[in-house]
Structure formats: structure tokens, C-alpha cells
């Protein structure tokens, strides 16, 4: 550019050219929380009105998810006023979605506080397509980090202040926000799951942090917390005291880490392990410990009046099971036990029954809401089904069953003794029978 051309760019000319090039200029009056647009072109004619409420404008520009234009949940709305307060010049790239399903627009925003006035000037420009694609690639690169760390900020307990507030689902950039730690703590607790709110208030209490954290110490705990989609997810809340060299400093870093996938996988594994601990590995029904506990609890509840409906139990023994092992082998014996357990559960699938393997070829059933006669009818139906079924090895088997009903003064041992004697009587009278004790 020649000197002659440079001399053409007077202050007035630069301002004129600038007003032609910039996409939007907005002036804000913080005293009234109102804004007015001086220039508004392109996408900005759809994003906001010529004038309006400043908080609505901040919501449109800053307080929304990176991938949509949806508003954040009510629990996070408390942060809105702090996002719109600027004490110095501020620059930030925004990712704005105007129409759902369409690509996001990348916008450069500059904020200039107007000296001696509680007012701002916002200058906004949409980046050109090439720059937009570069920015989109950047967003994709940080996507994994955003999924992991949802929130972070610095805390100064002496000054009761926060700094570098960042909600990564809104932006990967920190926000200049004037927010007291005490106010933030009382706001964010509403986003914590109700069962974990008391723990959060205890662990985030300034006196707790001062007492329990030496410089450099980090501690965390897991809880449920609402994300910006309004869904409660498992997170790890992390507090770390910063080493400043001054023991009178109480400065901390606070972070929220998304551990939902890991926690869900862990809970699923724990549930499976728990089920394995209660399940007979061969037959898939309850093991001895679980069925005995279920039976004892049921009798105790019935005796103490917690269960008004009748309660019965049965013990089932496969007849001549040793001969199955001797004739067909132990593998066939195992297959017979597995098939017998399937018949047992299928026969009672419409009833409220707990079924478990008592040991060897013996099984116990706890029959809720059944009288002795009703339990005997169920047992007879089972006996017939078993006797008519052809086992995988080609043979047929039978079973003997003892039934007893719990009385108001019975212990588990009383009920078990009666049904065990009934089973002995069934076997003594030739097997393949149901007897009631």
C-alpha cells in the first residue's frame, strides 16, 4: 500500500470502513440490563432483536450448549448474571446454532467496557467458511476433553471469590465472571442429586477445606449431578489446594469430571458379581445362602405381622438322582440338575416364589401369598410336569415334595422341620409324591 493510500485512511474513514465490514455492534446499559443494536447483519438478524433484555442476549450468545441453541436447565440459570459482567476487554469465539440440525456458526466476539460508564460495546463477526471449518476441527479435538471435564474454576476462600469459571458444555474458554464462592456453592447444590447434597455442602464448606487440605492436597468424591441436558449423571467432584508458598493463602482448584460411563459399567459389573454371589453357578437359581436368608426373612416378617397374606414353603428332591450319575455320568447329572431347575422356574413363573438349590439334588421354594392347600396344588403340578419330561440324556426322572405353611408363632426352623418331615414321608411311601406337613 502506497503512502498516498495510507494517508486516505483518516479516523473518520477507518470508522466508516469498519462500520461496513463488521457484522454486528451492540451497546449495553448494565444499569437497566438493556441492549440496543447499532449494526446488525447476516446471521445476527436472526440471533437477536434490534433491542431487548441484556440477559436474553447473553443467554443467546453464551449460555447454551455447544451443539444446540437450547437453554440450559434452571439450576444453571443462576450463573446467568455473572456471565454478562465484564471488568476489562474480553475476546471469545462463540459456537452458535441458529437452526437445529444445521452446522454451527463460529463467531468472534469482542467486549469493550465503556470507561466511567456501566456500559459495554459488543462487536461480533462471523468467521469465513475456511476459518469456520478450522474452528469446527478444534471443537472436535476438544470434544473428548469436554466429555470428561464438565466444569472448573479457581477459588479464593480468603476473598470469597471465584475465577476462570468454565463450563465446558457451553465453551472450552473460561468466563470472566464476578461470583462469590459462597454464592456459587449455594447455587450449584441444586444441581447435585438430592441424596448427595448434604455431602456436597459438607465437603465444600470453607472451614472444612481450610481444616482438611494442606497445600498441594487433592481430594474427591463421586455423586450424581445434573448436566446441561437436564440429565443426572455420575461425576467426580475434585478439590485441590494450590501451593502458593504462603500458608495463609487458601486458594483451590475445583473440577467436575464426567465419570458416568465408567460408573455405570462398574455398577453393572458389581450387580453381576452380586448376583453371582447369590446364585448357584450350575442351575442359575438362588444358592443355599440366599434362599435360606429369603426364607428366614419371610417367616420373620410373617411372624411379626409385616406380612398379612399366607406363607408356605416346599422342599423338592429328585428321586434316585445317584442312579442318573451312575448310569449316564456326572456330566449328564449336571445337565439334569440344570434342566430340572428350568422346569421348576418355568412352572412357577406366574407366581411369587423364591427358588434356590438347597444342596445336591434338593431345592427349596418360598411361596408367598399361598396357603398349604394352594402350595400343595402347585407342588402336584410340578411333580406331574417333571415326571412327563424327557431329560437331555433321554431318561425320565421324578421328584418328591414336602410342603408346609407358616404359622403365626413359627420360626423358620419350625416350618423347615415340618416340610422336611413331609418330604421324608413322600420318599418313604414310594417317592414321586407330594406330602403336606
List descriptors.
3 domains; 26% strand; alpha+beta; elongated; single chain; 437 residues; six-stranded antiparallel beta sheet; 16 strands; 40% helix; five-stranded antiparallel beta sheet; Beta-Lactamase; Alpha-Beta Plaits
Structure commentary:
With 437 residues, the chain is α+β, with helices and mostly antiparallel strands. It has helices at 3-8, 11-21, 44-47, 54-61, 74-77, 80-83, 129-148, 181-188, 197-203, 206-212, 260-278, 288-303, 321-328, 330-347, 372-388, 412-428; strands at residues 24-29, 34-40, 51-53, 90-96, 105-114, 119-126, 149-156, 161-167, 218-226, 232-241, 251-258, 311-318, 353-359, 362-368, 399-405, 434-436. It has three domains: 1-127, Beta-Lactamase; 143-273, 2-Layer Sandwich (Beta-Lactamase), CATH 3.30.450; 279-436, Reverse transcriptase/Diguanylate cyclase domain (Alpha-Beta Plaits, 2-Layer Sandwich). It has 16 helices and 16 strands. It has a six-stranded antiparallel beta sheet with strand order 3-2-1-6-5-4. Strand 15 (399-405), helix 16 and strand 16 form a beta-alpha-beta unit. Helix 13 packs across helix 14 and helix 14 (330-347) packs across helix 15 (372-388). It starts with a helix and ends with a strand.
